[in-house]
Amino acid sequence: NNMDKNIDEIKIDEMKIEYSESVLLDVSGLSVSFNQYVKNLKQVELNVIHDLNLTVKKGEIVAVVGSSGSGKSLLAHAILGILPSNAVVSGNILYNGELLNDKRKKQLRGREITFIPQSVNYLDPLMKVGKQVQIGMDKKDASKNQKKLFSRYGLKTKDEVKYPFELSGGMLRRVLISTSIRPEANLIIADEPTPGLHPEALEETKNQIKELANQGKGVIMITHDIHSALDIADKIAVFYAGSTLEVALVSDFEGEGENLRHPYTKALWKSLP
Ligand code: ADP
Ligand code: MG
Question: Has UniProt tagged this entry with the keyword Translocase (predicted)?
Answer without folding.
Answer: yes
